[in-house]
Amino acid sequence: MRQSVFTWLGLAALVLGALATPAQAAGNAIVIDGSTTVGPIAKAFAEYYMRQHPGISVTVSESGSGNGAKSLVNGTCDIADMSRFMKDTEFQAAVAAGVWPVAHVVAMDGIAIVVHPSNPVQEITVEQARAVYTGRIKNWSELGGPDRAIVVVSRDTNSGTYESFETLVLDREKMDGSVEYLGSNGAIRQKIQSTTAAIGYIGLGFVDRTVKALTVNGVEPTRETVAAGLYPVARPLFMFTNGYPDPGTPVHGFITLYLTRKGQEMIEAIGFVPVTSY
């Protein structure tokens, strides 16, 4: 996955003829749309950036990674939050519209597989999780738990988290028809909190004491295991811009926050893993 990311980054750099759009260079507002996983990072950055720059307005919407890509292509946002890399079709649509997507890897994230805290099951393998989501395993007793039907919950198909899970866990197999789809990490967590027989998956930054994260292939989903490359269900988180923003513009100042000490502190506080450290 990482090789694909950096291959596309190189290709994007080659096609850039201009660094920023006129709106980025002259505007006093930054519009952000996309991933609900990256959303908490964008919101934390927005609050901090507006405190440091009172004349700049930053708005953050969370409509999903796919819609973030569409917004960037349509010119309705300056930054597209995405919890997956841009698809070939999205990149081609962008280029056809005169938009040159540049990916900024702002953090790393683990996708935690979570259950209700009362569930006695503590661990799962990637193969078992695939069997649960494709319908081959339907009862908790098959995983060492109680004799109860598993309530399987997934992110909606427009979600970057869904697509990452589909690649990393399902190996592109189709989910069973009984799977329930929800629109955000928060909705998944709420479903798990209220449903003792449920299983779902959420970004690492959304794990708290109200749900229990299972070990996957014997590895706990933590910032340390993600940073060390040990946790098997992990992915980079992106912010995409149209071209590389001109230094000194608001978009440039915002998009490079993840490289600063303060930005890294915010990323860690939310529960994600910085890509660099001071």
UniProtKB/TrEMBL annotation:
PBP domain ranges (all copies): 22-255
GO molecular function: phosphate ion binding
Residues making up the signal peptide according to the UniProt record: 1-25
Keywords, sorted A to Z: Phosphate transport, Signal, Transport
The keyword rRNA-binding appears for this protein: no
Purpose: Involved in the system for phosphate transport across the cytoplasmic membrane.
Family indicated by similarity: Belongs to the PstS family.
NCBIfam families the UniProt entry points to: ptsS_2
Official protein name in the record: Phosphate-binding protein
Originating organism: Eiseniibacteriota bacterium
